[in-house]
Design a protein that fits this description.
mainly alpha
Length: 296
């Protein structure tokens, strides 16, 4: 028996057949996985495509048999009808202002609170954090009536954007999220800054915040989406139709006797655009923020 036979006890034809079979099995597994992922992706994309299709046809197309599956040419007409009926451009603008303002100030408050809970030591710190986390377990319906009484009657903030924003600026989930991000920072960097004479404010704004920028981008998208989709609280606080946000304005299209689905689909498409633009702008930071905890 020669050395080659000792190192490779199987015949050459058998080794070739085994390797081919292994590659074939891997190819089948890969194709099966991709087909499954494609099926799931199509399942998720189907409602979005139907939304685009119905927004570009007149109302009768929704009730057609079979329904259309291709884009039509009525999108502009449907949008003009929607805007004439309820001034939808103003509603979208109101939503952008409310959501953007909420995101900006909520990011400031949650970052400050998260940094204090993560990097400072003070009496009652554990209890304060436990109470903040505990508020996440309280359903909104349990506090909506006393919250409305406090904001609308006692503080006199009914029919104002301040009344819409104020109750949710100190977001408990945001505080928890930012605390975890600040805990991941190396303490040596912060201590070195203090040794160099940097104040706590400078350390927070110039060192700590830039280091958690990906996490802040992910939180900003979450907060913006929360405010953008909020319906119940603005519906209760706002009474002037010119101040309605987009979800509240869209709710007025749902009549008892008639529902114009083509205008609703156009409104939903237009409501999706600002969030998609924000996601595209912050996409890289969002992915980095989501995966930040996966690497030590």
């Amino acid at each position: 028996m020669n050395i080659e036979q000792i190192n490779n006890p199987l015949p050459a034809d058998t080794r070739f057949t085994s390797a081919s079979r292994y590659r074939a099995i891997n190819l089948i597994k890969s194709l099966s996985l991709h087909l499954m992922m494609l099926s799931v992706a199509l399942l998720w994309l189907a409602p979005i495509w139907l939304m685009l299709v119905f927004s570009s046809h007149d109302e009768s197309a929704i009730y057609a048999t079979p329904p259309p599956i291709g884009l039509g040419s009525e999108f502009i007409n449907n949008f003009n009808s929607l805007n004439e009926k309820m001034d939808f451009v103003t509603a979208i603008t109101n939503s952008i202002i409310v959501s953007g303002t909420f995101t900006f100030f909520s990011m400031i408050l949650t970052s400050l609170a998260g940094y204090a809970l993560a990097r400072f030591t003070f009496k009652g710190k554990t209890l304060a954090f436990a109470l903040i986390i505990g508020t996440l377990t309280i359903p909104m319906m349990a506090v909506i009536i006393p919250q409305y009484t406090l904001v609308a009657r006692d503080l006199g903030m009914a029919n104002s954007y301040i009344g819409v924003l104020l109750p949710y600026l100190a977001n408990s989930l945001g505080v928890f999220f930012m605390r975890q991000m600040f805990l991941s920072l190396p303490q040596e960097v912060l201590d070195a800054s203090r040794v160099d004479g940097a104040s706590e404010g400078r350390i927070f704004f110039e060192i700590a915040l830039p280091m958690v920028r990906p996490g802040m981008a992910a939180l900003a998208i979450i907060l913006f989406l929360t405010a953008w989709n909020d319906y119940l609280w603005p519906l209760l606080i706002l009474t002037d139709s010119s101040m309605f946000t987009a979800p509240v304005a869209m709710g007025t299209l749902l009549g008892i006797a008639r529902v114009d689905w083509s205008m609703i689909m156009v409104g939903v498409v237009m409501m999706s655009m600002p969030f998609l633009i924000l996601f595209l702008i912050l996409q890289r930071q969002l992915i980095a923020g989501i995966t930040a905890g996966a690497v030590k």
